[in-house]
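Could someone model P-hydroxybenzoic acid with this protein?
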Amino acid sequence: MRTQVVIVGAGPAGLLLSHLLGLDGIDSVLVERQTAEYVQARIRAGILEAGTVELLRDAGLGARLDVEGMEHRGIHLQWPEHRHHVDFADLIGRSVTVYGQTEVTKDLMAAREKAGRPAYYSADGVTLHDVTGKPSVTFVDSDGKARRIDADVVVGCDGFHGPSRASIPDPQVWERTYPFAWLGVLADVAPSTDELIYAWHPDGFAMHSMRSPRVSRFYLQVAPDEDIAAWSDDRIWAALSERLGVPGWTLETGPITEKSVLPMRSFVATPMRHGNLYLAGDAAHIVPPTGAKGLNLAVADVALLARALTAAVRGDDRLVDAYSETALRRVWRCTHFSWWMTSMLHRHGDDFDARLQLAQLQRTVTSEAAAKELAENYAGLPL
Ligand code: RFL
Ligand code: PHB
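Reply:
Sure, complex below.
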């Protein structure tokens, strides 16, 4: 089989890239290790930047998003006895939208099926060949048949653990692991807040997010090696009530439908291109989830790459030649912002660190300049 672009990995980055290339008349084939059902069910990110929403709309993917997405003007920043609303709409004229990664993925999969773009799910042993010459990808399909796809270009959208990054010789890698993790909780209960709450607390960070008017999402800072069995539903609700509590506010509780421990790391690998191989999304970089950047950064990469590959097919290589450098400017900005939010909100170090964090939180909600800095980064720089 032959195509113009083989995309390894059908997460949001791979699915969206295939969609955007299709709009420009460029053929692609997706090769994914998991089943479509598995990919769709993974509970991950929940916040879309203004630019991500615009891009999805412009790409014809806005129908359900416009009905079910919940537009938020900003976030609540909190520490004991204090809750402050940071209003992005007032500060910078932009907002964010709550629409889960599961929903974005569903919409992308539906669009792919409608357009009849080919995808191989449950692909085993995906291997990249000759990425600096005439690239190809081999694998065993869901029927056990060995396949080979030749292409002009291979794009690795296969996440942090995928094989593509290993095809770039001697990458430069930057990594930071954090001395804590998140316990993520999904519950069938209406959110007890209008907009997301990010809370600093002596017991550790807590966050109140949501997925719909009837489903809430919560996070608690825990140890990186936390045993999830130690967290009964009762203990979870007690910790959330304590850490998210402010006078005069109550947390509504309900049935917990999912809980898991999520590791936290910052990671950047460069370059994001080697010959005819390009990396996009989590395959090239990971941010801790505190700034809600992971999914949005993956979208920014593929928006840039789709434009660059389209120009290259038409004979103009300037954008593909600049892809890695251009993408990495945004990657490092978001890496800094995610690190900053993470460092400000999680308990670590000693009491001196705690005082610095509280001083920074106070500054962020009282200085318009400081609040704008948060707002611009959180609502997202223009694509
Ligand atoms: P994905 O979504 O990881 O998709 C990569 C795809 O590649 C497939 N793959 C392979 N395919 C073929 N052959 C192989 N050998 C393969 N190996 C892997 C995988 O099955 C998968 O389908 O990366 P992508 O598309 O770059 O999208 C990035 C986002 O998914 C990611 O940045 C965010 O979800 C990060 N993230 C979160 N971000 C937030 O902004 N807020 C969150 O609350 C949040 N929670 C999370 C997260 C990431 C998590 N992971 C990766 C551990 C929670 C989790 C658990
Ligand atoms: C989520 O809803 O899962 C979510 C929202 C904001 C974050 C991280 C996760 O910063």
